[in-house]
Amino acid sequence: MMLFKFLNYLQPTHYFSLHKTGGTGVFPRVEVLPEVVKSQLEADTRFESELAQQYDLSWQALQKGYVGDAEVYSETEALPLPLTDEYRFIRKYFNKAWVWYVLGLRLGSFCNPIKEVRAFWRSRHAIRSTYLKHPLSHEGWGSFESPLLNKTPKVSVIIPTLNRYPYLKDVLKDLVQQDYPNFEVLVVDQSQPFQETFYKDFGLDLNVFYQEEQALWLARNRAIQEAQGDYFLLFDDDSRVAPDWISSHMKALDFFKADISSGVSLSKVGAKVPEHYSFFRVSDQLDTGNVLIAREVFEAIGLFDRQFEKQRMGDGEFGLRAYLAGFLNVSNPYAGRLHLKVDSGGLREMGSWDAFRTNKLLSPRPIPSVLYFFRRYFGSRAARYALLRTVPMSIMPYRFKQNRFMLVLGAFLSVLLLPLVGIQVWRSWRLASRKLEEGPMIENLG
Fold it and tell me: Domain 147-347 belongs to what topology?
């Protein structure tokens, strides 16, 4: 439930655009926020309506890291705003190129051109916000003595692996160094050839399962079914972590009374590190390379959907399911990992690595599971907006994700390559339709 409707153009498949079970959203009502939180928000009286000012503060609070139990807006409370306020909002928080993008979409959708251009013009003096440079503080975190940590419930660390023994060796060595005492490690090894002797002498409570079929979500589901822990910590086989990794995850669950702790993933490849990775916030994503999930989450909503096998966004789909069911997922800056993103083994050998970039000229774009996810939860209209938002910039290779010029160039190239891109998208849409007809493949825990 987006308070500002223009976000449906720019973030059409965002978790927070949907209502949770019971019809509630996630944006807090500003008038009931603690004073210590409201004092850290930046009021903007340049909005034409008082309601837009309130919505802006609510959106700020969530983005700047508010994690609390304040009353939130329900699906019936998101009221229409003046057109000028909608344009002012996106000017404040998005690059100006996206403001022109929204204007183009509105005009192309046969909205009243006079009203649109007038509102666009009247909002032109809006100043780009730097709100993320001043996140909310969470006093007490440093001195918090976690009762959950003192109880040391069992944690099951789950690692699927495929042809990455040199990197897996460092992963297991990092686990040996953990300061949290009560955990087991479950490795589902799909390597060819399987090296059983590799796992000797690590000094861990280690359970290794050989899986002949190379299937990532099957591997994770199998390990979850076998795990004995009260909490499942999902991990990748090409990552490095600090000795307090497990304890930082557990402490965050206890501090926020959360159900999921999503650790941040830092990488030397791809897009720059987002500013919001540096502070706690309600998470709008789930990365199965670094996330701690309470057992009861799986008991309530089931395991991973195997419709995503050998494709992408299976973790994002599970995260959305958890969000819709009302479980709290906190982005945890203290439980980070270095994601090496090595160029061999893993998901690359199973089919695809990037959700929107293809390996072959006529391969579907995006990966069909992406459109299956978008269409199943957000509908075809939102899926089309997501395609417009993402496909043009996916023309350039992954290594250029940090290069704004190359991304813009990719958008122009997509116009020149429109017939080819159209075929790729059509193929993806058709394959996604087959998945939708088949329905989800979600097993229950136990």
Answer: Spore Coat Polysaccharide Biosynthesis Protein SpsA; Chain A (3.90.550)
